[in-house]
From TrEMBL:
Reaction(s) the record says it catalyses: S-ubiquitinyl-[E2 ubiquitin-conjugating enzyme]-L-cysteine + [acceptor protein]-L-lysine = [E2 ubiquitin-conjugating enzyme]-L-cysteine + N(6)-ubiquitinyl-[acceptor protein]-L-lysine
One GO-annotated biological process of the protein: protein polyubiquitination
Listed GO MF terms: cyclin binding; ubiquitin conjugating enzyme binding; ubiquitin protein ligase activity
Record text on subunit structure and interactions: Interacts with UBE2C/UbcH10 (E2 ubiquitin-conjugating enzyme). In vitro, interacts with cyclin-B.
Cellular component terms per the entry's GO annotation: cytosol; nucleus; ubiquitin ligase complex
Name of the molecule in the record: E3 ubiquitin-protein ligase E3D
Pfam families: HECT_2 (PF09814)
E.C. numbers: 2.3.2.26
Annotated function: E3 ubiquitin-protein ligase which accepts ubiquitin from specific E2 ubiquitin-conjugating enzymes, and transfers it to substrates, generally promoting their degradation by the proteasome. Independently of its E3 ubiquitin-protein ligase activity, acts as an inhibitor of CPSF3 endonuclease activity by blocking CPSF3 active site.
PANTHER family, sorted: E3 UBIQUITIN-PROTEIN LIGASE E3D, E3 UBIQUITIN-PROTEIN LIGASE E3D FAMILY MEMBER
InterPro entries, alphabetized: UBQ-conj_enz_E2-bd_prot
Naturally occurring in which organism (per UniProt): Lottia gigantea (Giant owl limpet)
């Protein structure tokens, strides 16, 4: 079995190509002959030939550079290519199509009305005659930190008493407040027979999917009970013309939708706050915490990936976001090196904080680790960080 991994960078019209033998494949690690012609990479080994046909990519063999065999016996090279896709977009055009801004989301919620469904099973979550009088954007999670920069003098003493701090932003009975990862609504919009409440969590009755939680933005217990935070990754907003059954039966799985949601979230946060480094923080009701250090390497890269022993293999590129990451599952039990890097990033004003639900952070870690395991061994780490890919849905 032979593996191919290639990164197609549209801005540079270059292809970083790597050929390797997967772990445990039992293959002879010696390649007899390798040839590149048009869109085909062929590897001859003993009496067999394995060919990889890269979709919509014509390589230019004369532009080959950086050819070497690394310490892991992997052959790597960089080669220029011609894109044969007549409808190909630039990286900037790809990214502008993908940003899910709050403005677009507000328009989507306005159009969908009460057609809000659970991503896991398609259960309708909002009342049939639900209507929002106002749909308004929320500031980012760390808006109060940015507010400190607006003053020319220190004002901590004015708010030394926690009770003197503002209650936070909360919706009126017929309001919907739209954040980057959730919406805040009043509980009277939710169908009582569609959800149940487990402590502070809002759970779908049909599939058990956690779709939200009670809001802690209010000091009043009565107000907190009435205000619910609904996670955007756990629900679907559909226009009246679309049918939920068709969407659930589509080829796009819940995992793919979740991965695309996380990819777009990272890109959107990077664009809004002009940052390429992020601290993802979350904790659950039992005090468990997760911190992820994320470093955005490539906003948009098309990845060819295949492991096969077949004679002919058609390989299609997958648009992805490439990141470096380090996971800290518990600040108490983490390594000294992780704690030092975390404190360094925490003090850096150029690092942006992203607050995610605990379960969503675990999903993010799982997706990143899974992608790292499928990478060639030499590309899995960089400068003490793990390398991960998050897939984007094709437009």
């Amino acid at each position: 079995m032979i593996g191919l991994y290639a990164e197609k960078k549209t801005q540079l019209s270059s292809l970083s190509l790597l050929l390797y033998f997967p772990e445990g494949s039992g293959s002879d690690t010696k390649l007899s002959e390798i040839s590149i012609k048009d869109n085909t990479v062929s590897i001859e080994q003993h009496d067999s030939i394995v060919s990889f046909l890269l979709d919509q990519t014509t390589m230019l063999p004369s532009s080959c550079r950086g050819l070497l065999v690394n310490s892991h016996d992997e052959l790597q090279l960089t080669i220029q290519y011609l894109d044969t896709n007549t409808n190909s977009k630039t990286t900037r055009e790809h990214l502008s199509d993908r940003f899910t801004t709050q403005t677009k989301l507000i328009e989507e919620i306005t159009q969908c009305g009460n057609n809000v469904y659970c991503c896991g099973c398609g259960q309708k979550l909002f009342n049939d005659h639900n209507k929002f009088n106002r749909i308004l954007p929320l500031p980012s999670e760390n808006w109060s930190d940015f507010a400190d920069m607006w003053f020319c003098h220190k004002h901590e003493e004015e708010h030394h008493d926690k009770d003197s701090r503002p209650n936070g932003l909360k919706p009126k009975p017929n309001d919907c407040l739209v954040g980057t990862t959730y919406i805040l609504i009043n509980s009277n919009h939710i169908k009582t027979d569609s959800v149940s409440y487990n402590n502070t969590e809002v759970v779908c009755n049909r599939c058990g999917n956690c779709i939200g939680k009670g809001s802690n933005s209010s000091k009043s217990e009565k107000e907190a009970d009435n205000i619910k935070r609904i996670y955007l990754h756990a629900v679907m907003f559909l226009s009246p013309t679309k049918k939920i059954q068709n969407l659930l039966l589509s080829s796009t799985s819940q995992k793919e939708r979740l991965e695309n949601y996380l990819s777009q979230l990272i890109l959107e946060e990077s664009r809004l706050f002009t940052s390429f480094r992020f601290i993802v923080k979350s904790s659950d009701s039992q005090g468990k915490s997760v911190q992820i250090l994320l470093w955005l390497l490539d906003e948009y890269v098309e990845v060819f990936q295949c492991q096969s022993s077949n004679k002919i293999n058609q390989v299609t590129s997958i648009p992805s976001v490439k990141v470096l990451y380090r996971c800290i599952l518990s600040t108490r039990g983490c390594r000294v090196e992780d704690k030092a890097i975390y404190k360094l990033w925490e003090r850096d004003n150029s690092v942006h904080l992203i607050d995610l639900p605990y379960t969503l952070s675990l999903h993010l870690i799982s997706l990143l680790i899974s992608s790292s395991k499928h990478l060639p061994f030499s590309t899995r780490q960089l400068n003490g960080f793990n390398v991960g890919l998050l897939q984007l849905q094709k437009t």
